[in-house]
């Protein structure tokens, strides 16, 4: 039987067997039970969600499960994923839960847990939760009367998160910024934070209806933001995904500034101010070699991990490093947050623009990208692709043809039925052709 928890919590189409209200209830009961076993007393769980229609349904089921096992719930309503992590630590709660499927379409949803310290649960704790869920229901406590849990809202805790974000930034007076909230979790918070810092904010896609999250907008469709930045003559643009744990930027010319460039700008700024621990940046195997070359020139070591912000964070914590992230726009500022935070990243990036008094295009232009091409190959099954001889032969042929002038990276998505084929080299047409040849073999073998 496949593991219930993927690389980023439990995900699936909401109200199906993969992610049903019954499963959410069971997860809530299991989380409260496990927390009570560890604390020996009454426990508190923090719950937040993005704007999907299924969010209130799953939140209600989770809350009922937690209360049924004797835990109290602080329901934050619509808030970002990093907002849940922050409030969990701020309230000294036992655990936090975010209901979101990030950049996925509206019918999907997910349940992601944080421990009391604001970090994602380690695999072994997720395994304990899964074992409790799969056990007989009567193996978990079912208190009555005063021992039942309660549910309350806490707008003041959400305000504390907003104040924290504002406290990390520099004055942004004089900057005009377009923010594409993607009808997602940041639709109120991101414009509010930037306005409090003094920026003139033009906010896009701030009318969620439960079905329009990520629909032709947000970080997965940056062309909307690019056009708006040009139309408004803005200094910069920011686009969030559904749960706002990442952001993509656009410079004043309407050109994309991806996660690699954002990390480059922030790493150079932190190093110049003596605030980059170990003079090290942690990123994944997907980051462009241009980032590595720039960091080397400035005396910054680049450490690569497997794809996934959890692996970046693990390496940061293990090595005592303060900055890490992904090309997709997940950026982790270790001194300010326990997870990637798209609003926090926007604040840090725009603060550098304001302090340096240079256009974002100039700051981003310090990093020269090598041509990179990514193909997402939808497959019938992901299992066994690494042992497939035809796929491995196709990869080997591409590597031989590149003759050391680039790299090939093939990996399975952790959240979707996709095999991702990424090539990097000196000639775009060449790497596109090689990527297409590998992708065709994968489709044939894994249909």
CATH superfamily of the largest domain: Alpha-D-Glucose-1,6-Bisphosphate, subunit A, domain 3
Mean pLDDT: 94
Helices, by number, come to: 14
How would the global form be characterised? globular
CATH topology of the largest domain: Alpha-D-Glucose-1,6-Bisphosphate, Chain A, domain 3
N-C termini distance: 21 Å
For the record, the count of structural domains works out to 3
Largest sheet: 6 strands, mixed
- For the biggest β-sheet, the strand order reads 1-5-4-2-3-6
CATH architecture of the largest domain: 3-Layer(aba) Sandwich
Q: Determine the strand fraction and express it as a percent band.
A: 15-25%
Radius of gyration: 22 Å
Helical content (DSSP H or I, runs of 4+): 25-40%
Q: Helix- and strand-based class?
A: alpha/beta
Number of strands: 18
Question: Which residues sit in consecutive blocks of at least 5 with pLDDT less than 50?
Answer: none
Explain how this protein is built:
By secondary structure, the protein is α/β, with parallel strands linked by helices. It has 3 domains: 10-155, Alpha-D-Glucose-1,6-Bisphosphate, Chain A, domain 3 (3-Layer(aba) Sandwich); 168-364, Alpha-D-Glucose-1,6-Bisphosphate, Chain A, domain 3 (3-Layer(aba) Sandwich), CATH 3.40.120; 372-445, 2-Layer Sandwich (TATA-Binding Protein). Helices cover 39% and strands 21% of the residues. The chain has 14 helices and 18 strands. The protein has helices at 21-39, 54-68, 81-90, 123-134, 155-167, 189-196, 223-232, 259-272, 289-297, 309-319, 342-356, 360-364, 389-402, 428-445, and strands at residues 10-13, 43-49, 71-78, 95-99, 108-115, 151-153, 176-180, 200-204, 236-240, 247-250, 256-257, 280-284, 301-305, 323-325, 331-333, 372-378, 406-412, 418-425. The strands form 5 sheets. A 6-stranded mixed beta sheet has the order 1-5-4-2-3-6, sandwiched between helices. The two termini are 21 Å apart. The mean pLDDT is 94.
């Amino acid at each position: 039987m496949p593991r219930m928890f993927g690389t980023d919590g439990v995900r699936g189409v909401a109200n199906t067997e993969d992610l049903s209200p019954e499963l959410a209830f069971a997860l809530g009961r299991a989380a409260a039970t496990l927390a009570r076993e560890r604390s020996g007393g009454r426990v508190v769980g923090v719950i937040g969600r993005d704007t999907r229609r299924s969010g209130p349904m799953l939140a209600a089921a989770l809350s009922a499960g937690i209360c049924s096992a004797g835990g109290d719930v602080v329901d934050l309503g619509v808030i970002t994923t990093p907002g849940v992590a922050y409030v969990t630590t701020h309230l000294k709660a036992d655990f936090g839960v975010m209901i979101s499927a990030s950049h996925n379409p509206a019918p999907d949803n997910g349940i992601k847990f944080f421990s009391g310290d604001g970090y994602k649960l380690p695999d072994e704790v997720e395994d304990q939760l899964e074992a409790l869920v799969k056990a007989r229901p009567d193996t978990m406590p079912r208190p009555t009367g005063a021992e039942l849990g309660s549910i309350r809202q806490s707008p003041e805790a959400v305000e504390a998160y907003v104040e924290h974000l504002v406290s990390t930034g520099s004055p942004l007076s004089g900057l005009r910024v377009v923010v594409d909230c993607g009808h997602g979790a940041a639709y109120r918070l991101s414009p509010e934070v930037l306005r409090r810092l003094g920026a003139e904010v033009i906010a896009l896609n701030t009318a969620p209806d439960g079905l329009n999250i990520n629909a032709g907008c947000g970080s997965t469709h940056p062309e909307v933001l690019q056009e708006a930045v040009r139309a408004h003559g803005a200094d910069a643009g920011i686009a969030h995904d559904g749960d706002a744990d990442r952001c993509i930027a656009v410079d004043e010319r309407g050109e994309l500034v991806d996660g690699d460039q954002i990390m480059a700008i922030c790493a150079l700024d932190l190093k110049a101010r003596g605030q980059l621990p170990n003079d090290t940046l942690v990123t994944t195997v997907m980051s462009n070699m241009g980032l590595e070359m720039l960091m080397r020139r400035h005396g910054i070591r680049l450490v690569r991990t497997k794809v996934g912000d959890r692996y970046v964070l693990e390496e940061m914590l293990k090595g005592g490093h303060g900055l890490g992230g992904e090309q997709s726009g997940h950026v982790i500022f270790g001194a300010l947050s326990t997870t990637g935070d798209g609003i926090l990243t926007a604040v840090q990036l725009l603060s550098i623009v304001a302090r340096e008094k240079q256009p974002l295009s100039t700051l981003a232009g310090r990093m020269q990208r090598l041509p990179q091409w990514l193909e997402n190959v939808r497959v019938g099954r992901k299992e066994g692709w690494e042992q497939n001889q035809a796929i491995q032969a196709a990869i080997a042929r591409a590597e031989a043809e590149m003759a050391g002038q680039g790299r090939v990276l093939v990996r399975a998505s952790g959240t979707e039925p996709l095999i991702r084929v990424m090539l990097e080299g000196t000639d775009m047409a060449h790497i596109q052709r090689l990527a297409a040849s590998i992708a065709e073999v994968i489709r044939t073998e894994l249909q």
